[in-house]
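Message: I would value a second opinion on how I read folds in token form. Give me a protein, with the fold worked out from its sequence. Write it directly below this note and I will take it from there.
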Amino acid sequence: MVNMKFMSYGVMIYMLLALIWWTVLLHRNSHTIHQKNIKLHEYSVKAGDHFMDDARFAIEEKHFLRNRSMIIGEGIVFGLSLILGIWFIQKAYNNEVIHNRNQKNFLLSITHELKSPITSINLIAETLIKRQMPDEKRQELSSNILSESNRLEKLINNVLMATKLDSGYRFNSEAIELEGIIQQCIDRKKLHHPELTTQLISQGHSIVKGDREALVSVFNNLIENSIKYAGRAPKINIKIEKSGSWMKIMFSDNGPGIPDGEKVNVFKQFYRMGNEETRQTKGTGLGLYIVDKIIRAHRGMIKVADHPDGGSIFTIIFPI
């Protein structure tokens, strides 16, 4: 890929130099012909010959000026086109590098995320089979198996949802009461994260048209994202309010927040801050990408901002 980039640069630079040389050559030839016409006009005037009289010389002068402007103009346009081409090549190359890096991070993360719960489940299952232990300990290990299984299910659901969205997934449309569906998502998360503190505020009549499965995925991913980055005592405040013909949902958390330079990237597919080999938090870079794609498919929008007290605020706006 790098060799192709520099080969493309080489061809375009060669064409640019050839253009400059050709423009100079054309301009020089045109100027030489013009100088000869001037001398011919002077000779005709002195000799009293009408071959190059004032009228014909004026026409030749106008023709020369038009040719000169055309040569310079075409040279500038073609030169700018080549420079623009070089810029597009560089931009495409940079995008390809970023995409390849994000894909590499995704493969590393998905390998780890799949391997880790499977390994844990196998170890716990072997322990339960081979060792005698009190019922209390057996119950604890069984709960761990369930937890790892749920983690694996969430990962697979996200991968499947991302694949559906990229393959032209057709959304169903039904009336959905947002407060109820968000509360259900919160209740399910609290079963696995009892340390989670939440506050859900709604002004009532929070009904929108949408795909239930897709919106559940949106709210689950936003809640999971907040839990993942908030640390040991995650706190999420959710506010639903109606504003004219729009429904606004705000998710605020007590996490570390997102740097301003990263806010524009967090909704990109496979994107995660930092390097996958040194990152501490789990994930695949699909969660917020799925959220953004689903919200856009519902003719809505999502944005992220800093919380005044720390953390982030994700704001979703739906048409009613």
User: Anything to note?
Assistant: The mean pLDDT is 78. The chain has seven helices and seven strands.
